[in-house]
Amino acid sequence: MTVNATRHNAGASKSFGPFTVSPLPDATFGGRVELANGRSGARAFIETAEADPGLLSRALYDVEGLLFLPGMDAISDDPEFLLRLSRLFGAEVEDYSQTLIAKNMTHPSVPEIFIVSNIEPAIKLPPARPTPPLTESGELPTQFPHRRGWHTDQSYRRPPPDVSLFYAVIPSPEGQGQTLYANGFAAYDALPNDLKAQAQNLIGIHVMLGAGRSEYAARAGEAPKPLEAHQQPQHQPVVRTHPVTGQRALFLCEAGQMDWVDGPFVGMAPGANGAGAKLLYELMTHYTHPAFTYTHNWSKGDLVVYDNRSSIHAATWFDSDAYQRLMWRTTTWGNPGPDYDGEARSWIPK
Ligand SMILES: [Fe+2]
User: Fold this and answer.
1) What are phi and psi of 282, to 5 degrees?
2) Alpha helices in the chain (DSSP H)
3) Residue 64 DSSP label
4) Residue 37 pLDDT level (bands cut at 50, 70, 90)
5) DSSP 8-state secondary structure symbol assigned to residue 258
6) What residues does each domain of the chain span?
7) 257 alpha carbon to ligand 1 midpoint, in Å?
């Protein structure tokens, strides 16, 4: 499949008031944000942004849903900085004690912070290395199915969250533990007409991790686990219209967060060998084409802001036996768009 790799990022840096947004390397979306007045550090950045609260989210939408803010190191000593930044991207910063997140995965005193770490008590191990570990040309593989683990955060809820902020307290070493991002607007726009038409009214079935409904569980013949009412798989449109920009984007996950028992798609033959699975492979292979992806190599103090309504991401391997990694994540909630008008939160126990 040929794809159109030219997007807005062919251009130069742009000004958003006191901020400069420059293109990310080797990517057709996203931007690196820095203060243009010579000031640096999280405090100056946040105080400047709060003076015009809509500015950073406008920058986020202008570059199609991915911002990189370097030098935010002060967040590590003061998590409130992360919450203040998060509030600039959504009406509500989610309290993870109210969601389906396990308690050991949240910050001990700031329940809005989800911990991604191989350090106790969180103990989230990195994904395995892909097979083979590199592409034929010696690159880090990004494209599904060579690369696994692509998802949008907490898509197993209705409404799903809007924007995530992901911050490196202790990053994995250079060349390991990257985060890959893919642009759902560009992937949707570049779909061949027949697939675009097929995707248009398609409904995906998303499910939380550990429910025994992943592709791996389905292929291994595992029995699905009993789920409470508030943990049930949720239907999500495969094509979402962005509530702010009106652009259409693909909204999908793959092996782990789709329901491979009753899905992955409503109305198509279910299971790992069904017609739905075949279509999901085709769509995800397209979505994660290198023309639509960006690889972030983390340094201490990096913050990446990404729009879950229009992008997916995946983690890469790092040597968890040799290194510790500690990342903090917040999510904002409250503007999922007309597909979810007036809905109660599916994840709150009745
Ligand atoms: Fe994620």
Assistant:
1) -65, -45
2) 42-50, 55-62, 80-87, 184-189, 193-200, 215-219, 275-287
3) T
4) confident
5) B
6) 14-340
7) 11
Which residue is listed with tokens 């398609």?
202
Amino acid code (one letter) for 118: N
Per-residue pLDDT reduced to its tens digit, 228-281: 999 999 999 999 999 999 999 999 999 999 999 999 999 999 999 999 999 999
3-state class (DSSP) for residue 348: coil
CA-to-CA separations, 75 to 39, 42, 343, in angstroms, rounded: 16, 7, 34
Identify whether the C-beta of residue 45 lies closer than 8 Å to the C-beta of residue 69: yes
H/E stretch holding 231: none
CATH, range 14-340: 3.60.130.10
Q: Report every protein residue that has its C-beta within 5 angstroms of ion ligand 1.
A: 153
Tell me the one-letter amino acid at 241.
T
Per-residue pLDDT, 102: 84
Q: With the C-alpha atoms ordered 185, 189, 192, 194, is the resulting torsion angle positive or negative?
A: positive
Confirm if 73 and 31 have CB atoms less than 8 A apart: no
Q: How far is the CA of 17 from the centre of ligand 1 (A)?
A: 30
